[in-house]
């Protein structure tokens, strides 16, 4: 049972890391979009 559980836990941990990394990339892209829109709005004032 332990021989099956340990590899499954490792797979879940790696999947979670990739999910968090992807979420971080999405948040960074959203932040960049907000920053560029704010800069554009300020330049129009």
Automatic annotation (TrEMBL):
The protein's name in its UniProt record: Entericidin EcnA/B family protein
**Can you name the source organism?**
Rhodobacter aestuarii
Please, one GO biological process term? Answer: response to toxic substance
A cellular component term, taken from the record's GO annotations: membrane
> What keyword terms does UniProt attach to this protein?
Cell membrane, Lipoprotein, Membrane, Palmitate, Signal
Tell me the superkingdom of the source.
Bacteria
Instruction: Fetch the Pfam families from UniProt.
Output: Entericidin
Q: Which family does it belong to?
A: Belongs to the EcnA/EcnB lipoprotein family.
Any keyword Lyase?
A: no
